[in-house]
Each structure stands twice: as structure tokens, then as C-alpha cells.
Design a protein that fits this description.
Blueprint (H helix, E strand, L loop, with lengths): L3 H12 L10 H27 L1 H8 L4 H26 L3 H31 L8 H34 L3 H30 L2
């Protein structure tokens, strides 16, 4: 039986107000802030050069397949939704359900890569490369850097999937999943902006 002092300690601890914290690790938020600044600079540079030669950009932009761009937007948004679902399930301790949602998110991310590969192949077959003109330089550079982010995100999700499969649900693995999910949402957000700038803005 606990002493009166132990009871008092418990009362003190439980009386402390809950302090909300950012999900995931602090490091990922620093990474996201830096990444957003860099991409903001890229987007601003693109718009600056586009304003100087709108006709050429519009003509080149018209050769892009908007269906592929929209499809990949839906794919990534759906993938992010499954990651959110996985985090919620992980916090409830549902190991199998969490792992299943992560797998679906990964498969959707791989689907994004496949669609982007098809799109790149179509552009190459039409004779469009990174040196074709200014627009395609930005197109291949920006989507290529984003594709690297997708690959990193897929690696992070795969890592946390195997951790959960082998170690089960614990506080550390939930934090790792949240951290991976936050980065994956960044990947999603960046693509939405890229889709608007490269495919839709006229």
C-alpha cells in the first residue's frame, strides 16, 4: 500500500494542466520550415521568369497532360488521408489496422511515381527535355526535386511500417509515424502548388 507522500505526488502530477505539443519530432518541423522557404523561392523565381515571357510558357504548358496532373493530385491527397487514418489507429493501439493503412499510403505513393514516369516518358517522346526551353527547365527541375521528396517520404513510411510490424505499437513508433506523416503532408502540399503553377495557371 502506498504511503501518503506517494498519494500526494500522484495528486500533484495529475493536477498539472496538459500542455499541447506539436505532433512528431521537433526536427521535422525545422526541416519543413526550411523546405518551404526553398520551394517558396523556387515558385517565386518561376513566376518572375514566366511574367517576362507568358506566351512561351503558355504554349509549353499546353502540352502538359492535365489529367495526369489531376490524377497524381488525387493519389497524393488520398495517400495523405490514409496516413492520418494510420496515426489515429496507432494511437488506439490497433497494430494490424495501422500497418494496413500505411501499406495503402505507400502503394498510392508508388502509384504517383508510376504516373509521373509515364508523363516524363511522354514528354521525352515528344522531344521535350530540360534544355528545350525555360518552361521545361522549370518543369523537370521542380517536379524532379519533388519526386526526390516523394522517394524520401516513401522510405520514411516504409521504415515506420517495419518498425510497427516488428515492434508493435509504442510511444516511440507513434512519434515516428507522426513525423513521417508530417513530411508526407508536406510532399502533398508541395505537389498541390506545383500542379496549380505548372498545369493550371494561364
Amino acid at each position: 500500500m502506498g504511503s501518503m507522500e506517494d498519494v500526494q505526488k500522484i495528486r500533484v502530477n495529475t493536477s498539472k494542466p496538459h500542455t499541447p505539443n506539436l505532433p512528431g519530432s521537433e526536427g521535422v518541423w525545422i526541416l519543413i520550415f526550411g523546405d518551404m522557404m526553398v520551394f517558396g523561392l523556387f515558385f517565386g523565381t518561376y513566376l518572375f521568369y514566366r511574367s517576362a515571357n507568358i506566351e512561351m510558357y503558355y504554349t509549353s504548358q499546353s502540352s502538359l497532360n492535365e489529367f495526369f496532373g489531376l490524377l497524381n493530385t488525387i493519389v497524393l491527397l488520398t495517400s495523405s488521408w490514409f496516413v492520418v487514418w494510420a496515426v489515429r489507429l496507432a494511437k488506439s493501439g490497433a497494430k494490424k489496422a495501422t500497418a494496413n493503412r500505411i501499406v495503402i499510403a505507400i502503394l498510392l505513393g508508388l502509384g504517383f511515381c508510376v504516373v509521373k514516369g509515364i508523363e516524363y516518358s511522354a514528354k521525352f517522346s515528344e522531344g521535350h527535355t530540360i534544355i528545350s526551353n525555360e518552361f521545361f527547365m522549370f518543369y523537370f527541375m521542380l517536379t524532379g526535386i519533388h519526386l526526390v521528396h516523394v522517394t524520401i517520404g516513401l522510405g520514411a513510411l516504409s521504415f515506420v511500417y517495419f518498425k510497427i510490424k516488428t515492434q508493435g505499437i509504442n510511444e516511440n513508433n507513434v512519434t515516428t509515424l507522426e513525423t513521417s506523416g508530417i513530411f508526407w503532408h508536406l510532399v502533398d502540399l508541395l505537389w498541390v502548388v506545383l500542379f496549380a503553377l505548372l498545369y493550371l495557371v494561364r
